[in-house]
Amino acid sequence: MKELTQAELLLLGLVAEMPRHGYQLDQVIQQRGMREWTQIGFSSIYFVLGRLQKLGLVGAKRPGGASAGAKSRKIYSITSAGRRELAAQTIAALREVRPVHSSVLLGMINWPVLGRGQALTALETRRSAIAAERARLSAIQIEQQPLPDYVEALFEYSLGQLRAEAEWVSRTLDYMATKPWLE
Amino acid sequence: MKDADMKARLKELYLPPATEFVLVDVPEMRYLMVDGRGAADRTALDHAVKWLFTVIHPIKRVARERMGKNFVEPPLEGLWWADDVQDFICGNRDKLKWRMMIVYEPDWLTEEMFEDGVAAAKTRLGEPPDGLRIESYHEGLSAQIMHVGPPSEEGPTVARLHQEFLPANGLLPHGHHHEIYLTDPNRTEPEKMRTVLRQPVRRSG
Fold it and tell me: Judging by beta carbons within 10 Å of its beta carbon (0-12, 13-18, 19+), is residue A69 exposed, middle or buried?
Protein backbone atom coordinates (compact mmCIF):
# COMPACT_ATOMS: atom_id res chain seq x y z
CA MET A 1 0.00 0.00 0.00
CA LYS A 2 1.17 3.50 -0.71
CA GLU A 3 2.21 5.69 2.16
CA LEU A 4 -0.69 7.18 4.07
CA THR A 5 -0.93 10.92 4.54
CA GLN A 6 -0.29 12.42 7.96
CA ALA A 7 -4.01 13.03 8.49
CA GLU A 8 -4.84 9.45 7.50
CA LEU A 9 -2.21 8.01 9.82
CA LEU A 10 -3.35 10.21 12.68
CA LEU A 11 -7.01 9.22 12.38
CA LEU A 12 -6.10 5.58 11.93
CA GLY A 13 -4.13 5.81 15.19
CA LEU A 14 -7.07 7.35 17.02
CA VAL A 15 -9.55 4.69 15.95
CA ALA A 16 -6.92 2.07 16.83
CA GLU A 17 -6.95 3.30 20.46
CA MET A 18 -10.66 2.54 20.66
CA PRO A 19 -13.74 2.71 18.42
CA ARG A 20 -15.01 6.28 18.33
CA HIS A 21 -17.80 8.44 16.92
CA GLY A 22 -16.86 11.07 14.37
CA TYR A 23 -17.58 13.88 16.83
CA GLN A 24 -15.43 12.17 19.46
CA LEU A 25 -12.55 12.06 17.01
CA ASP A 26 -12.97 15.78 16.52
CA GLN A 27 -12.91 16.35 20.29
CA VAL A 28 -9.80 14.26 20.79
CA ILE A 29 -7.97 16.04 17.97
CA GLN A 30 -8.94 19.32 19.60
CA GLN A 31 -7.95 18.28 23.15
CA ARG A 32 -4.57 16.95 22.13
CA GLY A 33 -3.74 20.01 20.06
CA MET A 34 -3.23 17.88 16.96
CA ARG A 35 -4.49 20.59 14.61
CA GLU A 36 -1.32 22.40 15.43
CA TRP A 37 0.87 20.05 13.46
CA THR A 38 -1.47 18.44 10.96
CA GLN A 39 -3.78 19.81 8.37
CA ILE A 40 -7.06 18.44 9.57
CA GLY A 41 -10.30 20.36 9.82
CA PHE A 42 -13.60 19.08 11.18
CA SER A 43 -15.14 18.55 7.76
CA SER A 44 -12.05 16.80 6.47
CA ILE A 45 -12.28 14.23 9.27
CA TYR A 46 -15.15 12.56 7.41
CA PHE A 47 -13.38 12.88 4.11
CA VAL A 48 -10.29 11.15 5.53
CA LEU A 49 -12.39 8.50 7.32
CA GLY A 50 -14.18 7.84 4.03
CA ARG A 51 -10.87 7.25 2.31
CA LEU A 52 -9.67 4.94 5.06
CA GLN A 53 -12.94 3.02 4.74
CA LYS A 54 -12.47 2.63 1.00
CA LEU A 55 -8.97 1.29 1.62
CA GLY A 56 -10.49 -1.26 4.00
CA LEU A 57 -8.52 0.06 6.97
CA VAL A 58 -11.47 1.40 8.94
CA GLY A 59 -15.02 0.11 9.40
CA ALA A 60 -18.09 2.18 10.30
CA LYS A 61 -21.19 1.06 12.14
CA ARG A 62 -24.29 2.88 13.24
CA PRO A 63 -25.23 1.96 16.78
CA GLY A 64 -28.50 0.04 16.94
CA GLY A 65 -28.14 -1.12 13.37
CA ALA A 66 -30.18 1.77 11.91
CA SER A 67 -29.35 2.12 8.24
CA ALA A 68 -29.76 5.88 8.02
CA GLY A 69 -28.58 8.73 10.23
CA ALA A 70 -26.03 11.46 10.55
CA LYS A 71 -22.50 10.38 9.79
CA SER A 72 -21.39 11.90 13.10
CA ARG A 73 -23.35 9.12 14.85
CA LYS A 74 -21.41 6.35 13.15
CA ILE A 75 -18.83 4.52 15.20
CA TYR A 76 -15.54 4.05 13.44
CA SER A 77 -13.21 1.20 14.33
CA ILE A 78 -10.01 -0.19 12.90
CA THR A 79 -10.01 -3.38 10.80
CA SER A 80 -7.32 -6.05 11.12
CA ALA A 81 -5.88 -4.86 7.79
CA GLY A 82 -5.89 -1.35 9.26
CA ARG A 83 -3.99 -2.51 12.32
CA ARG A 84 -1.32 -4.19 10.16
CA GLU A 85 -0.99 -1.12 7.96
CA LEU A 86 -0.79 1.22 10.94
CA ALA A 87 1.99 -0.89 12.48
CA ALA A 88 3.94 -0.99 9.20
CA GLN A 89 3.69 2.75 8.66
CA THR A 90 4.51 3.51 12.29
CA ILE A 91 7.68 1.43 11.99
CA ALA A 92 8.60 3.35 8.84
CA ALA A 93 7.91 6.69 10.55
CA LEU A 94 10.16 5.78 13.48
CA ARG A 95 12.96 4.34 11.35
CA GLU A 96 13.30 6.88 8.60
CA VAL A 97 15.29 10.05 9.02
CA ARG A 98 13.92 12.76 6.79
CA PRO A 99 15.66 16.05 7.37
CA VAL A 100 13.35 19.04 7.30
CA HIS A 101 15.16 21.99 5.86
CA SER A 102 14.73 25.10 7.90
CA SER A 103 14.55 28.55 6.29
CA VAL A 104 17.62 29.38 8.36
CA LEU A 105 19.75 27.46 5.83
CA LEU A 106 18.72 29.80 3.05
CA GLY A 107 19.21 32.73 5.40
CA MET A 108 22.76 31.69 6.25
CA ILE A 109 23.81 30.99 2.68
CA ASN A 110 22.87 34.52 1.70
CA TRP A 111 24.29 36.09 4.86
CA PRO A 112 26.76 38.30 2.92
CA VAL A 113 23.94 40.26 1.24
CA LEU A 114 23.12 41.80 4.62
CA GLY A 115 24.96 44.41 6.59
CA ARG A 116 26.30 43.32 9.99
CA GLY A 117 23.55 45.08 11.97
CA GLN A 118 20.73 43.72 9.82
CA ALA A 119 22.03 40.17 9.95
CA LEU A 120 22.66 40.16 13.71
CA THR A 121 19.24 41.69 14.42
CA ALA A 122 17.53 39.07 12.30
CA LEU A 123 19.27 36.24 14.16
CA GLU A 124 18.49 37.84 17.50
CA THR A 125 14.84 37.93 16.52
CA ARG A 126 15.11 34.25 15.67
CA ARG A 127 16.55 33.59 19.12
CA SER A 128 13.56 35.28 20.81
CA ALA A 129 11.14 33.39 18.58
CA ILE A 130 12.76 30.09 19.57
CA ALA A 131 12.55 30.99 23.25
CA ALA A 132 8.87 31.86 22.81
CA GLU A 133 8.20 28.59 21.02
CA ARG A 134 9.93 26.59 23.77
CA ALA A 135 7.84 28.34 26.40
CA ARG A 136 4.66 27.75 24.41
CA LEU A 137 5.36 24.02 23.95
CA SER A 138 6.27 23.59 27.63
CA ALA A 139 3.00 25.25 28.60
CA ILE A 140 1.01 22.90 26.37
CA GLN A 141 2.89 19.94 27.80
CA ILE A 142 2.05 20.87 31.37
CA GLU A 143 -1.55 21.78 30.59
CA GLN A 144 -2.08 18.34 29.10
CA GLN A 145 -0.85 16.47 32.18
CA PRO A 146 -1.16 13.58 32.72
CA LEU A 147 0.36 12.28 29.51
CA PRO A 148 1.54 8.74 28.78
CA ASP A 149 5.31 8.27 28.70
CA TYR A 150 5.51 8.00 24.90
CA VAL A 151 3.78 11.37 24.52
CA GLU A 152 6.13 12.88 27.11
CA ALA A 153 8.95 11.59 24.92
CA LEU A 154 7.37 13.25 21.88
CA PHE A 155 7.38 16.62 23.67
CA GLU A 156 10.96 16.04 24.81
CA TYR A 157 11.93 15.46 21.19
CA SER A 158 10.48 18.77 19.99
CA LEU A 159 11.84 20.68 22.99
CA GLY A 160 15.25 19.09 22.51
CA GLN A 161 15.37 20.21 18.87
CA LEU A 162 14.50 23.75 19.92
CA ARG A 163 17.14 23.69 22.64
CA ALA A 164 19.77 22.59 20.13
CA GLU A 165 18.71 25.36 17.80
CA ALA A 166 18.81 27.94 20.60
CA GLU A 167 22.37 26.89 21.40
CA TRP A 168 23.35 27.14 17.77
CA VAL A 169 21.86 30.63 17.39
CA SER A 170 23.64 31.86 20.51
CA ARG A 171 26.98 30.43 19.44
CA THR A 172 26.61 31.85 15.95
CA LEU A 173 25.57 35.26 17.26
CA ASP A 174 28.52 35.36 19.67
CA TYR A 175 30.91 34.58 16.87
CA MET A 176 29.42 36.86 14.24
CA ALA A 177 29.08 39.75 16.68
CA THR A 178 32.72 39.63 17.77
CA LYS A 179 34.63 38.70 14.63
CA PRO A 180 36.29 41.52 12.71
CA TRP A 181 33.68 42.33 10.10
CA LEU A 182 34.69 42.57 6.45
CA GLU A 183 32.15 44.80 4.77
CA MET B 1 14.30 4.12 47.96
CA LYS B 2 17.50 4.20 45.90
CA ASP B 3 17.60 4.90 42.15
CA ALA B 4 18.72 1.45 41.12
CA ASP B 5 16.00 -0.24 43.20
CA MET B 6 13.21 1.72 41.57
CA LYS B 7 12.82 -0.20 38.37
CA ALA B 8 13.08 -3.71 39.77
CA ARG B 9 10.78 -2.83 42.63
CA LEU B 10 8.19 -1.17 40.46
CA LYS B 11 8.15 -4.11 38.10
CA GLU B 12 7.46 -6.50 40.94
CA LEU B 13 4.90 -4.23 42.55
CA TYR B 14 3.11 -2.96 39.47
CA LEU B 15 3.01 -5.93 37.12
CA PRO B 16 1.23 -8.79 38.86
CA PRO B 17 -0.26 -11.56 36.70
CA ALA B 18 -3.85 -11.21 35.52
CA THR B 19 -4.57 -14.86 36.13
CA GLU B 20 -4.09 -15.25 39.87
CA PHE B 21 -3.63 -13.34 43.10
CA VAL B 22 -0.05 -13.03 44.29
CA LEU B 23 1.44 -11.87 47.58
CA VAL B 24 4.02 -9.07 47.63
CA ASP B 25 5.74 -7.16 50.38
CA VAL B 26 5.25 -3.48 49.61
CA PRO B 27 8.01 -1.39 51.20
CA GLU B 28 7.45 1.94 52.86
CA MET B 29 7.41 4.63 50.18
CA ARG B 30 6.68 8.32 50.05
CA TYR B 31 3.68 9.44 48.01
CA LEU B 32 2.36 12.75 46.80
CA MET B 33 -1.28 12.63 47.88
CA VAL B 34 -4.67 14.34 48.08
CA ASP B 35 -7.71 13.05 50.01
CA GLY B 36 -11.34 13.52 49.15
CA ARG B 37 -14.78 12.04 49.45
CA GLY B 38 -17.52 11.12 47.03
CA ALA B 39 -17.00 9.91 43.51
CA ALA B 40 -20.51 10.14 42.06
CA ASP B 41 -19.43 13.57 40.88
CA ARG B 42 -15.87 13.35 39.63
CA THR B 43 -15.08 17.08 39.78
CA ALA B 44 -13.05 17.01 43.02
CA LEU B 45 -11.35 13.78 42.04
CA ASP B 46 -10.35 15.06 38.60
CA HIS B 47 -9.12 18.28 40.19
CA ALA B 48 -6.97 16.34 42.64
CA VAL B 49 -5.48 14.23 39.84
CA LYS B 50 -4.76 17.29 37.73
CA TRP B 51 -2.94 18.85 40.68
CA LEU B 52 -0.86 15.77 41.42
CA PHE B 53 0.34 15.48 37.84
CA THR B 54 0.98 19.21 37.47
CA VAL B 55 3.05 19.35 40.68
CA ILE B 56 5.09 16.31 39.78
CA HIS B 57 5.73 17.32 36.19
CA PRO B 58 8.87 19.46 36.73
CA ILE B 59 10.13 16.93 39.28
CA LYS B 60 9.79 14.07 36.80
CA ARG B 61 11.80 16.08 34.31
CA VAL B 62 14.69 16.37 36.77
CA ALA B 63 14.38 12.69 37.68
CA ARG B 64 14.32 11.60 34.04
CA GLU B 65 17.53 13.49 33.32
CA ARG B 66 19.33 12.36 36.43
CA MET B 67 18.22 8.72 36.42
CA GLY B 68 18.36 7.93 32.71
CA LYS B 69 17.24 4.39 32.12
CA ASN B 70 16.46 3.82 35.79
CA PHE B 71 13.63 6.31 35.49
CA VAL B 72 10.06 4.98 35.38
CA GLU B 73 6.96 7.12 34.87
CA PRO B 74 5.06 6.73 38.14
CA PRO B 75 1.38 5.90 37.60
CA LEU B 76 -1.66 7.32 39.38
CA GLU B 77 -2.78 5.27 42.37
CA GLY B 78 -5.93 5.46 44.46
CA LEU B 79 -6.98 4.20 47.87
CA TRP B 80 -10.72 3.71 48.38
CA TRP B 81 -12.64 3.13 51.58
CA ALA B 82 -15.87 4.00 53.39
CA ASP B 83 -16.75 4.59 57.04
CA ASP B 84 -19.43 1.93 56.72
CA VAL B 85 -18.02 -1.09 54.92
CA GLN B 86 -21.48 -1.77 53.44
CA ASP B 87 -21.18 1.42 51.42
CA PHE B 88 -17.94 0.11 50.03
CA ILE B 89 -19.33 -3.31 49.18
CA CYS B 90 -22.44 -1.85 47.57
CA GLY B 91 -20.43 0.74 45.67
CA ASN B 92 -22.32 3.77 47.03
CA ARG B 93 -20.09 6.18 45.21
CA ASP B 94 -21.18 9.31 47.08
CA LYS B 95 -20.19 7.66 50.40
CA LEU B 96 -16.74 6.56 49.30
CA LYS B 97 -13.57 8.20 50.51
CA TRP B 98 -10.50 8.29 48.35
CA ARG B 99 -6.86 9.19 48.39
CA MET B 100 -5.25 9.86 45.02
CA MET B 101 -1.49 9.45 45.02
CA ILE B 102 1.71 9.20 43.01
CA VAL B 103 4.90 7.58 44.30
CA TYR B 104 7.41 10.25 45.38
CA GLU B 105 10.68 8.35 45.12
CA PRO B 106 13.68 7.88 44.91
CA ASP B 107 15.02 9.25 48.17
CA TRP B 108 16.75 12.31 46.72
CA LEU B 109 13.44 13.96 45.84
CA THR B 110 13.13 16.69 48.47
CA GLU B 111 10.35 18.61 50.23
CA GLU B 112 11.75 21.69 48.59
CA MET B 113 11.26 20.28 45.10
CA PHE B 114 7.67 19.56 46.10
CA GLU B 115 7.18 23.13 47.38
CA ASP B 116 8.59 24.51 44.13
CA GLY B 117 6.28 22.23 42.14
CA VAL B 118 3.28 23.49 44.13
CA ALA B 119 4.30 27.13 43.61
CA ALA B 120 4.63 26.57 39.85
CA ALA B 121 1.29 24.75 39.66
CA LYS B 122 -0.46 27.61 41.51
CA THR B 123 0.23 29.95 38.62
CA ARG B 124 -1.86 27.66 36.39
CA LEU B 125 -4.42 26.05 38.66
CA GLY B 126 -5.02 28.53 41.48
CA GLU B 127 -5.19 27.30 45.07
CA PRO B 128 -4.11 23.70 45.73
CA PRO B 129 -6.63 21.17 47.05
CA ASP B 130 -6.72 20.84 50.87
CA GLY B 131 -4.30 18.31 52.22
CA LEU B 132 -2.02 18.12 49.21
CA ARG B 133 1.12 16.65 50.78
CA ILE B 134 3.94 14.14 50.79
CA GLU B 135 3.44 11.28 53.19
CA SER B 136 5.02 7.88 53.81
CA TYR B 137 2.81 4.84 53.48
CA HIS B 138 3.76 1.30 54.32
CA GLU B 139 1.42 -1.40 53.09
CA GLY B 140 3.62 -4.41 53.83
CA LEU B 141 2.24 -7.81 52.95
CA SER B 142 -0.41 -7.40 50.25
CA ALA B 143 -2.40 -9.52 47.82
CA GLN B 144 -2.68 -8.20 44.30
CA ILE B 145 -3.76 -9.01 40.77
CA MET B 146 -3.90 -7.28 37.39
CA HIS B 147 -7.47 -6.41 36.45
CA VAL B 148 -7.95 -6.18 32.70
CA GLY B 149 -11.07 -4.27 31.70
CA PRO B 150 -12.84 -1.14 32.93
CA PRO B 151 -12.33 -0.40 36.66
CA SER B 152 -16.14 -0.37 37.00
CA GLU B 153 -16.09 -4.13 36.38
CA GLU B 154 -13.62 -5.07 39.07
CA GLY B 155 -16.39 -6.09 41.53
CA PRO B 156 -16.27 -9.87 40.87
CA THR B 157 -12.47 -9.94 41.22
CA VAL B 158 -12.58 -8.02 44.51
CA ALA B 159 -15.29 -10.39 45.75
CA ARG B 160 -13.15 -13.39 44.78
CA LEU B 161 -10.23 -11.90 46.72
CA HIS B 162 -12.23 -11.44 49.91
CA GLN B 163 -14.37 -14.56 49.73
CA GLU B 164 -11.88 -17.05 48.31
CA PHE B 165 -8.22 -16.07 48.17
CA LEU B 166 -7.88 -14.43 51.58
CA PRO B 167 -9.75 -17.12 53.60
CA ALA B 168 -8.01 -19.93 51.71
CA ASN B 169 -4.62 -18.47 52.64
CA GLY B 170 -5.43 -17.56 56.23
CA LEU B 171 -5.31 -13.83 55.55
CA LEU B 172 -7.40 -10.88 56.68
CA PRO B 173 -7.68 -7.48 55.00
CA HIS B 174 -5.48 -4.95 56.77
CA GLY B 175 -5.69 -1.57 55.09
CA HIS B 176 -7.46 0.23 52.27
CA HIS B 177 -8.41 -1.17 48.87
CA HIS B 178 -5.74 0.11 46.48
CA GLU B 179 -5.95 0.63 42.71
CA ILE B 180 -3.06 1.48 40.42
CA TYR B 181 -4.12 2.89 37.08
CA LEU B 182 -1.68 1.78 34.40
CA THR B 183 -3.63 2.89 31.35
CA ASP B 184 -5.02 6.22 30.27
CA PRO B 185 -8.83 5.93 29.95
CA ASN B 186 -8.77 8.51 27.16
CA ARG B 187 -6.43 6.43 25.04
CA THR B 188 -7.40 2.86 25.83
CA GLU B 189 -10.50 0.92 25.02
CA PRO B 190 -12.30 -0.12 28.21
CA GLU B 191 -11.74 -3.86 27.63
CA LYS B 192 -7.98 -3.30 27.45
CA MET B 193 -7.57 -1.07 30.48
CA ARG B 194 -5.20 -2.41 33.12
CA THR B 195 -5.50 -1.69 36.82
CA VAL B 196 -3.53 -3.31 39.63
CA LEU B 197 -5.89 -4.23 42.48
CA ARG B 198 -4.06 -4.46 45.78
CA GLN B 199 -5.23 -5.32 49.26
CA PRO B 200 -2.88 -5.07 52.25
CA VAL B 201 -3.36 -8.14 54.47
CA ARG B 202 -2.26 -9.71 57.76
CA ARG B 203 -2.08 -13.36 58.79
CA SER B 204 -5.12 -14.40 60.79
CA GLY B 205 -4.70 -15.97 64.21
Answer: exposed
